[in-house]
Amino acid sequence: LRGARVIIACRGEEKARKAVREIRSHNMNVLHMEVDLANMRSIREFSKTFLQKEKRLDILINNADDDFSMCFGVNHLGHFLLTNLLLPRLKESSPSSMINLTCSSYKYQKLDFQDLNYNLFPFVTYCRSKLANICFTQELARTLEGKGVTAYAVHPGYVQSNWICPYSVLFRILVQVVMFMFFVSCEAGAHTVVYCAVSDEVLEHNGGYFTDCQPAHLRAFASDSGVARKLWEASERLVKLA
Questions:
Q1: DSSP, residue by residue, 13-82
Q2: So which residues are the signal peptide here (predicted)?
Q3: Alpha-carbon distance 78 to 100, whole Å?
Q4: Catalytic residues
Q5: Is residue 82 in some structural domain?
Q6: 20 in any annotated domain
């Protein structure tokens, strides 16, 4: 509706085509580019192609499926590498912004720098990855202060997504009942993301954490600039980012 050129970057071609068809009912300028956030080579190839073809990047929205089995590498490291590779275009397109989708479940875990990619209990890994999204957002905002690029972490609410697909029929039925009663629709979940992408009101909260279209309070351990910097440096090493 705002005349934006929308690029959906994801691995699943079928899901991407469906999204493209839905968006084209409102905006014909939308396309799909393939990238696998679990594959660093795929991220680098996508970024190289994007920078060659696209002259602007005004808003970058990082979101991985809310799947407890998704590893720390996809939910954080993939987005960390992608964002850093696309930073030149974000800077050239300033004022621009980057949005990381996170979750309020960050509050249940702290980062363990002895084992960042901990994968024994999926829910623990998921919570840590969502905390990493917040720390990454804060450090990126500090790094880019005064350079025309702002960053925000967004908890969209608990959304009725399709993360339950791989599980048993009985489990899916039970969870669908819970989601129907307590979770919000995908459209409602997108409200805060869109708000942070287009509203000038968020500019004074660079690096902030948002939910329900307003800045929200973080636990003290999630606002530790030392931890955020340490995560950034560890992430640079893990993705071999010079």
A1: HHHHHHHHHHHHTT-S-EEEEE--TT-HHHHHHHHHHHHHH-S---EEEE-----TTS-HIIIIIIHHHH
A2: none
A3: 12
A4: 126
A5: yes
A6: no
Instruction: Write out pLDDT tens, residues 113-144.
Output: 988 877 778 788 889 999 999 999 999 999 99
Which domain covers residue 157, as residue numbers? 35-238
pLDDT bucket at 43, cuts 50 / 70 / 90: very high
Say if residues 67 and 42 touch (Cβ distance below 8 Å).
no
End-to-end CA distance of the chain: 39
CATH value at residue 71: 3.40.50.720
Angle at the Cα of 130 (from 129 to 132), degrees rounded to 5?
65
Q: How far apart are CA 86 and CA 134, in angstroms?
A: 19
| Tens-digit pLDDT profile for residues 207-220 | 999 999 999 999 99
**Domain for residue 11, yes or no?**
no
The answer to whether 163 and 181 are in contact (CB under 8 A) is no
The tally of domains found in the chain comes to 1
Quick check: helix, strand or coil at residue 86?
Answer: helix
Query: How are the residues of the chain apportioned to helix, strand and coil, as percentages rounded to the nearest 5?
Result: 50, 15, 35
> Whole-angstrom Cα distance, residue 150 to residue 131?
19
Cα three-residue angle 51-43-110, rounded to 5 degrees: 120
Amino acid identity for residue 12 in this structure: G
Cα(209)–Cα(217) distance, integer angstroms: 7
Residue 189 lies in a domain: yes
